[in-house]
């Protein structure tokens, strides 16, 4: 996996400012903000979970939860042990406000940076865009390795790690993760053609521990 050029999208300061603006929009207009990669990216993952009869009692972590809308949709589908982590305090504040207004205050939101250790285990870890942001940070290679190490540490032995990326192909995700994980499945995503070649708008892959 090649390094990308670092970007403001890989900085905490960018996301704090972004979610500060979204808090203001939510307070003034009731707009919860953008769903990264679109609502269909959320629907695909939840439909996979429902089709696979994933237990509603599974302990689920949304990593880089942002405004928390993925967890809101899980709550609407009767999943009960829901956790959202983000290193942006403003994102956590926004997610809590949205969940409380919709009477989903059982969702547990907390501030955490996945590059730091977390003393907890989960049956499902979901990442939609957080790994992408890490890949745009300074010292990206080192941070990617810390990310993988910490994911493996907090994932239960029979758990699922679900990742959606707009920056990396399935082959490139495998390059990063197959040293410690096994690819369990992929979720089909929209395709495009360019120059006679076929690609995916985003990639969604599901991994388990070796």
Structural summary, described in words:
- One of its GO terms (cellular component) is cytoplasm.
- Belongs to the class I-like SAM-binding methyltransferase superfamily. EFM4 family.
- S-adenosyl-L-methionine-dependent protein-lysine N-methyltransferase that methylates elongation factor 1-alpha.
- The chain has 7 helices and 9 strands.
- The longest helix has 18 residues, at about 10-30.
- The strands form 2 sheets. Strands 3-2-1-4-5-9-6 form a 7-stranded mixed sheet, with helices on both faces.
- Strand 1, helix 3 (about 70-75) and strand 2 form a beta-alpha-beta unit.
- It has one domain (about 10-210): Vaccinia Virus protein VP39 (Rossmann fold, 3-Layer(aba) Sandwich).
- It is globular.
- It is about 40% helix and about 25% strand.
- By secondary structure, it is of the alpha/beta class.
- The protein has helices spanning about 10-30, 40-50, 70-75, 90-100, 130-135, 140-155, 170-175, and strands at about 60-65, 80-85, 110, 120-130, 155-165, 180-185, 190-195, 195-200, 205-210.
Summarize the structure.
This is Protein-lysine N-methyltransferase HHI36_020291. The chain has 210 residues and is α/β, with parallel strands linked by helices.
């Amino acid at each position: 996996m090649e390094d990308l050029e670092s970007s403001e999208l890989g900085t905490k300061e960018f996301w704090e400012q972004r979610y500060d603006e979204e808090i203001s929009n939510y307070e003034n207009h009731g707009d919860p903000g953008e769903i990264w990669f679109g609502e269909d990216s959320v629907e695909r993952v939840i439909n996979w979970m429902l089709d696979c009869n994933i237990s509603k009692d599974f302990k689920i972590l949304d990593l880089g939860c942002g405004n928390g809308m993925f967890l809101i949709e899980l709550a609407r589908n009767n999943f009960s042990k829901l956790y959202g982590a983000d290193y942006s305090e403003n994102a956590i504040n926004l997610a809590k406000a949205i969940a409380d207004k919709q009477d989903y205050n059982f969702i547990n939101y907390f501030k955490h940076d996945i590059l730091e250790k977390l003393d907890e285990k989960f049956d499902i870890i979901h990442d939609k865009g957080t790994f992408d942001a890490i890949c745009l940070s300074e010292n990206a290679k080192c941070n990617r390795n810390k990310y993988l190490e910490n994911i493996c540490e907090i994932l239960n032995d029979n758990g699922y790690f679900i990742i959606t990326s707009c920056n990396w192909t399935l082959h490139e995700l495998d390059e990063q993760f197959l040293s410690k994980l096994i690819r369990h499945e992929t979720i089909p995503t929209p395709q495009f053609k360019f120059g006679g070649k076929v690609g995916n708008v985003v990639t969604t892959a599901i991994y388990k521990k070796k």
